[in-house]
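Case study.
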Amino acid sequence: MSLNRIILKNFFRNIRNYGLYIFALVFSVSLYFSFVLMSKDDSAAEELSSSTMMSSGFLIGSILLVVIIVTFVMFANSIFLKRRNTELALFQLIGLNRNKVFRILLQENAIIYFGSLIIGILFGFLLSRILLMVLLRIMQIELSVGLSFSTEAVLQTAGLFIAIFLLLLIQNFIFLKRTKLIDMITLNRTNESDSRRLGFGTVLMGIVGISMVAGGYYLSTLLLDYIEMAVPLVFTVLVVVVIGTYITFKFSIAFVLNVIRKSKKGHVGITDVLSLTSIMFKMKSNSFLLSMISIISALSVGLMSLSYITYYSAGSSVENTMPYDYVFEDAEGLDFYESLLTEEGIEYETIQLPSLEYEADTDGAISADLELMDINGSTLLMMVVSEAYFDSVDVGENETIITGTSDVMQSFVDYGLNEPVTFVSGDYKHSLELVDIQDRAILPSQISFGSPAAIVDEAVYQQLADNQSEEARTAEMTRTYALDIAGEDSMEIFKMMDQEENPYFQSKIEQYTVQMQALGMTMFIIAFVGLSFLLTSGCILYFKQVGESEDERGSYNVLRKLGFSEREIIKGLSIKMAITFGIPLLIGLLHAYFAVNAGWFIFGTEMWTPMLTVMGVYTALYSLFAIMSLLYYKRIVRESLN
Amino acid sequence: MILEAKGIKKSYGNRFNRTEVLKGIDLEIEKGEFVSIMGASGSGKTTLLNVLSSIDRVSSGHIFIEGEDITAMKDKKLANFRKNDLGFIFQQYNLLDTLTVKENILLPLSIRNMKEDEVEKQFDVVSNELDIHELSEKYPNEISGGQQQRTSAARAFVHQPKIIFADEPTGALDSKSASNLLNKLKQMNTNSRSTIMMVTHDATAASYSSRVIFLKDGLVYSTLRKGDRPQEDFYKEIMSTQSVLGGVGVES
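After joint prediction, the assembly is written out as follows.
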C-alpha cells in the first residue's frame, strides 16, 4: 500500500470534513464567475451600454469581490489547516519531512481546488442567468435572457483562482515552516484567553473604545453643519469608528463580560459555561474577527441603504424636477409637437405657464445659511407663479405657498410657516404670509434652475409683474411650455417624438428611464458586492463556530455526563450564538444608521423605508448563518455522548 | 549504547520571563533496555521525552543516537531519522479515524519502498503479537480504547525502529487494558530487542520496565534498576522512592 493511496483514501473519507472548505471555494468561484460572465454578456451589453457607468461599475465591483474572495478563501484555508493538525503532525512523526507534507497538502489542495473551480463555474453560469434577469428587471429593460457562454470569462475566473491557489500554497508553506512539530501536537489545546486582570488599563481602554465610537457618531451628525470640511470629517469619523470598534471588541466587551463573570463569584450556571466563558476563552481571536465583521456589515448595509435610497427616490426626484410629461424650449416647439400628437391621435393637455424671477429676503420665513451656499447679499432667488393656473391650489391675497423645496436645498434653507416672505425687486418690496410648503415642483428645472417657486394670488402676481425691475424682465425666458399626455405616457410616444430633425424637448419618461438604468446598475453592483460581504462574513462566523464546536465537543460530553439535558446545553449555546452573531450585527447596523443618517439627503428623498428594508433583509439573511451554526452545534451535542 | 544525552537544558518563554524546565540532564540508555521516566507533574518528564525523541529542540546539550548527534540534524535528515529509527506511542493514541486499523499500522511502512509480501509479513507479526489481527479491517471508532492503544503500539513497532518513545501510554486506559498493553510492550521488548523509553506517573506501569529514572525539578534525582528481582519488589521500591520524592506517589 503506497502513501499516495493512503492519502487519497484519507482524503475521500474525510470529504465531509472538507465540505466547508469546498463549499467556500465553490461559492467564491460561482460568485466571481457569474459576475464576470454578466459583464461580458453580449446580449445584455447592448442594452446596458446606455449606462456609461456599466464598465467602470463592474470593474470596481470586481476588484472589491476579488479582495473579499481572497480574504475569505485564505481564512477558510487557515481553519482547514488547523483542523488537520494532528494528521499533519503524525505524517511528520512517521518520518515525512516538511517538503513531503507540503507536497501532500499540495496534491489535496489541487484536487479540492480544481474540482471546486469546475463545479463553481457551472453553478456560476446558472447563477449569472438568474442575476442577469434580476439586473435587467431592476433597470427596467425588457429582454429575454439567453444562454450565452463566454470562454473569456472562464479564463479570467480560472486565472484568478490559479493565482489564489498559489497564494494558498504560500500560506501552507509558511504555516508548515513556522509551526514546530511540538506545537502541532499540542496546538489543539491552546488557550487563547486573554487572562489579563481586570486592571485599571482594561477599564480605561474599555471606556476609551466606547467613547471613540460615540464620538465618531457625534461627529457624523455634524457633517451637515460643516459641509465645507466634509472630506476630512468623513475620514476622521471613519478612522475613529473603525479603531473604536476594534477597541470596543477587544476591551469593552471583554470588560463587560468579565464584570458579569466576576459578579457570579464562581457560581457559573450551564448557560454561562456555554456562552460567557466560552466566548471569553476565545476572545483574542474573536475580537479581531468580530470587529472586522461589524465594519464589513456596516459598510455593506450603509452602501446598500444609500443606493437603495437613491433608487427608491428616483421616481420622486424626477417628479420634483419635471412636473410635466414633456417640456419645450419655446412656443414653436410646443406647436410642432401639438400638431404631431394630434396627427397621431394622441390626446394631450397643453400648459403655458408664465413665471417671474424674484428675490426673496432671507429673514422672516426664510432663514438660509448663505455662507454655505456662496450667495452674495441677503436674498434668495425665487420663482413666482400665479394661482390661476392651478385648480387645486387656493391662496389668499396675503398668502403664499412655496413649492419645489428639494431636500438638498432644505438642508441649507429653513422655512418658517406663518411668517412673512418679502419679495424684492429694486426698491419694490411685497410681503406675504407663508402658509404651506411643498416638496413637489411646479416648474421644470430648465426654468427654475432648482430654485423654489412661490404660488401667489392672481392679483398679487400682476402687482409683482408690474413692479418688476427692468433688468429682471425676461418674460419669454420664464414662460413654461409643456404638455401632459392624457392617460399614461409611454416609451412609444417618446420614441415617436424623439426624431433627430424635431425641435428639442425634455421628457419625464426619458429622464426616469435614464435614471433607473444608471441607478439600477449602481444598486445592482452594490447589492451584489454587499451580499457577497454578507455571505462571506456569515460563512466566516459559521466556520469559526464549527471549529469551536469541535473543540468543545469534550465539554459537552462532560456536561451531559454531569446530567445536563441536551435542551439545556442548546439553550446556553443559543445565547452564545446570539452574542457572537448579534453583537457584530448590532454594532454594524448602528454604524450604518449613523453613516446613512449623515449623508442620505444627498442621495434621495426618503430615508427610513429603504434603509429599514435593507437592514431587515440583511438581518434576516445574516440570522440564517446563526441558525445554521446552532443546528451544527445541536448535532455535535447530540453526538457528544456517543 | 543506543542513546546518550549530555547536559540537556530546555527553557521556555522569552528573554524576560524564562522558565527552565530541564536544567542539565545526562543519561545513557543501552540497546534493548526498557526505561521509565517518572517524576511529579512539572518535573519535566514529558519535555525530556519530546526532546530525546526529536519532537522538540533542546536549548543546549547534545543527544546522540547510535553516535549520531540529532541536535545538529537538519529537517530532512531528522525526518529520515524518525522514519527509520523512531516509533511513537501517545496517551491520546493519535490514530487517523479515516483509516482502518491495518492501514494505520502500515502507515510508517507506506513511505518506504518495501515489497508487498514483506509488509504483509511484518504486519502479521506485530498484529499477532499485540492481539489485534482480527481487528484489522475495523475503524478506530469501532474498537475500544485499549485496542486503539495497542494499534498505536503496533504502528510504533511495525517498522522495527531502534527506539520507541511512549508518552503516558496507559494514561487513558483502565487498569486491565493497561497491564495488557504493558505486558505486550515488555514481551516485544524482550523478543525483538527493541529499546523502549516510557514516561509515566504510574508506579505499576513503571514496574514493568528494567530501569526507572526519577526526575525532580528538571534534574535526574535517582535511578532504580530492577535487576533480577520479581516485579512486586521493584514496584515497592519505586513506591518508596516516589514517596521520598513527595507529590503524586500515593495515588496509584
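Observations recorded in class. DSSP finds eight helices and ten strands in chain B. Chain B touches chain A through 28 residues (CB under 8 Å). We will return to this complex in the next lecture.
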